[in-house]
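Bumping with the actual sequence this time:
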Amino acid sequence: MWQEIIVGIIVAAAALHAARKYLPAAWRQQIVYVLSRRGLPQEKLARFFNTESSCSSGCGSCGGCGDSPAPPAPPSDAGPARRVIRIYSAAAGK
């Protein structure tokens, strides 16, 4: 009986870890929303399921995604001409 309880706890922990790490962000946000409506603290759930805003989320809240410098202009005719290299296979001649 104890083995079944321990295995159940391990399986539940593995499922929770997989949900936390590999589910799409929209699904994780939905889980946080549903669990917070059940009375659990939303801030802790958002932190646990990684649904908080961050610089890599693209939300623009940190100001790090602001005006970036323009990409450098392509070089003019100062460099060597580009060449096309063609690769022929042996099967093409048969």
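The tokens above came from a reply further down the thread. The radius of gyration is 26 Å.
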